[in-house]
Amino acid sequence: MTKPQLLIDTDPGVDDALAILMAHAHADVLGLSIAAGNVGLAHTTRNARRLVDLVGAATPVFAGCPNPLVRLPEEDAAFVHGHDGLGDVGFPEPNTAVADEHAALAILRLTRERPGEITLVALAPLTNLALALRLDPSLPQRVKRLVVMGGAVTGRGNTSRVPAEFNVGFDPEAAHVVFEGFPDFDLVDWELTLRHAFDEDEFDQWLAAGDHRAKFFGRVFRVARQTNRERGRRGIIAADALAMAVAIDPSVVKHSEHRRVGVELDGRLTRGATVVDWSGRLGRRSQVSVVMELDQAKFAAMVQRALGALQAA
Ligand code: BDR
Ligand code: CA
């Protein structure tokens, strides 16, 4: 299998970190475009640079938008990811520099340079991608695939607005632009993530068996793990890693439903909800493959390899 070429829009973030390790273990990574989300843009950009140092790659890091398109965010996710977004470990200043190009412009340039070759992987609020799309609506025609981590397809979100998932809820207008502008994409939602958590003991064995990447992840993951436990979430939940598995190897998907999905922008209780037209009542063309089930063993093997706990076959 030839390696997929990935351009990753991300807000690292602990689960983003695992996804970025996976990408570098399994794919060609053309760049990391950075969004604000889990924590502020200065932190997410620095964390991305830190990850590039860790894997020893020359992956460019493009800083993007510091705020959502329209409204300022109501909440971030520092309580899960740590105030610095990577578990408040206190890493030194990374060596990797920030590229001198805005994330949205880098997305446009790279997809022009390699039309039809790049898989875009969106692991963050969709601000950068929406901006790129508004600058150049022909962007989807140049992209091989788009995989989005976002939404809660039956309304069980993970933010204080009940049905909203974090990435879509942080910047609903951006999500709306992307959901209306891309004619076809894969959606890995929060509820799928909960169905595909790893067993904690098994995951600890991978961390113990792995290399420097496992050691790093074990350190940055502590705060998130504790927060998840306190919230009664069982197992190791890795939303962005799950989306990355779909981006790296589409055959990991066992079952998906092709549906029209919209984003609620106005609801008093529901702003940021992803509304799925499950029974085709709107009469609008379906544009989203909602991933419903994944091959857990394949997903596990990809994560193990990214941690250095499993050698390539
Ligand atoms: C998503 O929100 C962020 O906190 C995670 O990094 C992930 O991208 C899960 O809802
Ligand atoms: Ca993320």
How would you summarize this macromolecular structure in one to three sentences?
By secondary structure, the chain is α/β, with parallel strands linked by helices. Helices cover 40% and strands 17% of the residues.
Please supply descriptive tags for the structure shown above.
binds beta-D-ribofuranose, Inosine-uridine Nucleoside N-ribohydrolase, Chain A, binds calcium ion, nine-stranded mixed beta sheet, alpha/beta, globular, 9 strands, 313 residues
User: Distance between the terminal alpha carbons, to the nearest Å?
Assistant: 12 Å
Approximately how much helix is present in the residues? Answer: 40-55%
Low-confidence stretches: none
- The mean pLDDT is 96
Q: Which hetero compounds are present in the coordinates?
A: beta-D-ribofuranose, calcium ion
The quaternary organization reads as single chain
Architecture per CATH nomenclature, i.e. the level-2 architecture: Alpha-Beta Complex
Number of helices: 14
